[in-house]
Amino acid sequence: MPQTADDLDAVAVRTWCSLALDALGREREAIDAINVYPVADGDTGTNLYLTAESAAAAVEAVFAAHETGTSVPSTADAVRAMAHGALIGARGNSGTILAQLLRGMAGVLADEAGERPGADRLRLALTRAAASAREAVAHPVEGTVLTVAAAAAEAAGRAPGGAGAGVVAQAAYEGARTALEATPGQLAVLGRAGVVDAGGRGLVAVLGALVEAVSGRAPERLYEPPAAPAPSAAGDCSAADDPQGGPAFEVIYLLEAGDGPVERLRARLDALGDSLVVVGGDGLWNVHVHVDDAGAAVEAGVEAGRPHRIRITHFAADRVHARPEPAQRAVVVVVPGDGLGGLCAEAGATTVLARPGEPPASGELVDAIRRAHAREVVLLPNDGDLRHTAAAAAEQARAEGIRVALIPTRAAVQGIAALAVHEPDRSFDEDVVAMTAAAGATRYAELAVAERQSWTMAGICQAGDILGLIDGDVAVIGENVPETARGVLDRMLAAGGELVTLVLGEDVPDALADTLEEHVREGYLAVDTVVYRGGRQCAPLLIGVE
Fold this sequence. Notes:
This protein is α+β, with helices and mostly antiparallel strands.
């Protein structure tokens, strides 16, 4: 739930990161669609999402370290983790600038002197963020996220004296929104395309999340930005601004180096290319630049210190440079247990294990797509909560030249159904259509144990009750697993079905499968049952009906 206290304690920071990630997930595709500056490569929304995801994961790690005690992290610990996570996970020009904005805010909010951060500290934090982001960019341009950040800080400064942090955050949000609307008149490339600045739109989403985290109220959506430029606008605008099409490569790396060598690095990289952004400090930096000579940009980093996590993207080919020759097609599947992981691996899929309480991050999915080493990849997330994460991973892989189809499977049994009809010899589109149809024709259910008394769609449950969830909603409440499982099957098969899939958890006896198979056989003629062992998984039983 959003924080309702009008301050910025550690819980509010955690909530902010979570809400910002959700907001960027919802807007990712729309932001990607209006990305025409500095390069029309359609990845600003994805890069902002990945950067925010890294920040949120770092904050969650700090909270996890305190789970064994009764205290929560300090505000300083939370904001420092947020800034560090954004720094090491920053992607692209926009993500790198967002990382510096968060670092600038953290430098103020982590000051442990005095009361926990309130309105005055938030004003100062927003001002410091805008200034530090502008300093990090070699050649600041108006009409970009820098302009939007500055407007947010100025509006926060004009908020009434004595106002709470929620009022200050709201003022910053509205100032940013107003500035965003004006960006097409400040930057010609945006005006010709008829869009607002993509990075600025992402920042407005992040500030809207801040408002909700601090005040407990989501800001009213006062602005509906243009959805996308005309199909040819992005290319026309880029060509008009740069007849040569701009540098061929984007180079990004983390760098361990002192302040002096970094200043010399800035000068050298500035001479090599454009869109130079260097963020960070205290010995760790994130370097971003567009160049024609990627090797020289990396060599400059080596001379300055120790670069790592080096990423080189070829804009013209829209893929990672020098990728080895891949196979034709692969399937990447997220599985909830090691048993299903083995099953899917035997079917030729590349698997990603989702441990209980630890859903995979988009970086893990991207790594799995790369590990599959194929030109075409079908991604099966098998969890509705992974939709934004999987979409971001697919977009990142596409930017590396891999053709990715994301089938929005919401449960492991839907993934099993899709994998069962996978045929790599037919065309990619036909294969994706068949797999999507198989997944969509599979209803899914799972059994869970109620942790506390609660209202559900099936009535009131007590702690320890067995809950039968069908398509994500509680439909059956029972006292034991066999009784509840039979009730779930009856509800699902009442609408028809040809095949029942049962996936048993590690501690569930084989006798349960025998009982349920007999129940289906006696009550539903011509319905087959297949049973798999899921291994260590969060649910004792998963059920699918095709």
